[in-house]
Amino acid sequence: MKKQLLLALSAALLCFSFESNAQKWTNLFDGKTFKGFKQLGGKAIYEVKDGVMVGTTVPGTGNSFMATEEEYGDFILEVDLKVDNKMNSGIQFRSLSIPSYNNGVVHGYQAEIDPSTRGWSGGIYDESRRGWLSQNELKPEAKKAFKLGDVWNHYRIEAIGHTIRTWINDVPVTYLVDDMTAKGFIAFQVHAIYGEMKPGMQVMWKNIRIQTGKDMQPRPLDGKTVVENYMLNNLSEQEKSEGFKLLFNGKDLTGFRSAFKTTAPPTVWTVEDGTLHVNSSGGKESGNGGDILTNEQFGAFELTFDFKLTEGANSGVKYFVNETYDSGMSAIGLEYQVLDDAKHPDAKLGTVGNRTLASLYDIIPSNKLDPRFQRKIGEWNQGRIIVYPNNIVQHWLNGFKVIEYERKSNIFKVLVAHSKHAKWNGFGMQDKGPILFQEHGDSVFYKNIKIREIN
Fold first, then answer.
1. 148 with 115: CB under 8 angstroms?
2. Which of 173, 248, 265, 300 has an alpha carbon within 20 to 30 A of 277's alpha carbon?
C-alpha cells in the first residue's frame, strides 16, 4: 500500500510539473492599461474596460492597430475575442511599420477575424502586402469554427520558424509555411469602415497571453490540416505526414520524360532558380520538342502546382494522359487549362468559356466568381487538381474551387461527345495515367509541384 501511495504521489507530482511547465505564459496585456503598446495607423478608439481591450470604429480613418512595442519572432499566442457581426478585424503578428515601406503603413501576417458566413476566420491575410495566403475554402470544419453572435471565441497562433498555425476554439484552421518575415510586432486591428460597417462598432480582446523561447509547448501535428506552403519546392512535416511528395525536385528533370518517348525531356524545358520553365518557341503547340510527363502513373490523387504566365501565354497540366492517341501534336488527356484569358485567342474559342484559365479544356468552363483572386500576369498562381477514388474531380485556383465533375459518368460522356475530344475512344476513362505539362510554344513557369495518392 505504501509503495502504491508513493507511486501515485510521484505520478501526481510529475503531472503537476508537466502542467506547470506547459503553463509558463506571460500576459501580453495587463488588463488595466496599454503599457507596452502603441497605436499605429488609423484613429480608431482603443480603451480598457473591465480587463478587456476594446476597439471602436470611427469614421474617416484607415485601419488602426494597437501594437506591441516589443517584436516577437517565434511564439505561441492565445487570446479570447468578441466582435460585432457586421465588422471585420484581425490579429497582426510578425508585422512591421517602417518609413521605407509605404510611408510606415502596417504590413505583415494577420490572423483573420471574419464574423460572416464565408467563414474565413483564422485564415492568414498578408496585410498591405500580398493579400490572402490562406483562407478556408478547402477546410469545411475550419469554416465553422468561429462562433457567430455575442460570444467569445478563443484564438491560438503558433509562429515557429517558417511554420504558422492557427486554431479557433481548438479547431485547426491554418498551416502556413512562409519565410517572408521572421520577426515583428503583434497588433490588434480595428478595420476601417466599409461595406455594412458603421461608426461605433466594437471588437474586444481579453486573456491575451504569450509563450516564447524554451517554454513554448507547440501542439502536435494532426496529419490532416491543409497546408499552404510558399517555400520553394519544399515539403513541410505536415505535408509529409499527409503523403505528399515532390514531382519536381527543383534541380533537374528527374522523373520526367518526353511525351510519346522514353527519352529525357526536350531542351525547351529548363530548370532556372528552382523553377521549371517551358521556353517560348513562337506559340506553336509542341513546336519545339513537345510536352513532358511523369514516369509514374496516378489514379486517385491530389496535385498542387504553382504557375506563372507571361503575356499571351498558353500551357496546361494534363492528367489521365493516353499516349496511344495519335494527335500529331500534344499528348491527349484531361487538361487543367493554363492560359492568359485576356490576351490568348483560345480563351474566346470553345463553348461558354470552356477554354479559359483553370477550365477542363474544351469540356467544362471554370467558375471564377471573384476576379480579386486571379493573379496578374507575371505573378504566381496556385493550381490544384483533386481526383477522388469515386471519380469526383475538382479544379482549384488560388484556394477556390472552380470546377467539380464526375469522371466516367453519363453527363461526363455527353460533355466529351460535344467536345473536340469526341474522336478519342475512351477519352479520360482509364484508371491511371501520367501527369503532363504542356509545351504550347509560350513561356510559362512552374514550381512547387507536389502530389499525394488518395486511397
1. yes
2. 300
**Strand, helix or coil for residue 38:** strand
Q: Are the C-beta atoms of 452 and 301 separated by less than 8 Å?
A: yes
Spatial separation of the C-alpha atoms in residues 60 and 70, rounded to whole Å: 29
pTM: 0.90
Q: Which residues make beta-bridge pairs with 185?
A: 95
**Can you tell me whether residue 83 is helix, strand or coil?**
strand
CA distance 47 to 53: 6
Cell of 238: 505536415
What DSSP line would sit under 185-240, residue for residue?
Answer: EEEEEEPPP-TT--TT-EEEEEEEEEE-GGG--PPPP-S-S-EEE-STT---HHHH
Q: If 0-12 CB within 10 Å is exposed, 13-18 middle and 19+ buried, where does residue 118 land?
A: exposed
Residue type, 6: L
CA distances to 78, 123, 141, 347, 384 from 146, rounded to whole Å, are 15, 11, 10, 39, 26
pLDDT at residue number 279:
94
Cβ proximity of 388 and 395 under 8 Å: no
Strands 171-177 and 227-229, bridge-based pairing: parallel
Burial label, 195 (beta-carbon count in 10 A; 0-12, 13-18, 19+): exposed
Asked if 357 and 339 count as a contact pair (C-beta separation under 8 A), the reply is yes
Query: Band of the pLDDT at 374, cuts 50, 70, 90?
Result: confident
Taking the CA atoms of 357, 359, 365 and 371 in sequence, report the sign of the dihedral they define: negative
Query: What's the DSSP call for residue 429?
Result: -
CB-count exposure of residue 390 (10 Å: 0-12, 13-18, 19+)? exposed
Q: Which set of grid coordinates corresponds to residue 216? A: 513554448
| Direct distance between the N- and C-terminal alpha carbons of the chain, in angstroms, rounded to an integer | 52
> Mean pLDDT in the chain?
92
The pLDDT of residue 288: 57
**Alpha-carbon 337 to chain mean position:** 20
* Cell 520538342 sits on residue: 289
3-state helix, strand, coil in the chain (%, to 5): 10, 40, 50
pLDDT at 20: 43
Q: Give the length of the chain.
A: 455
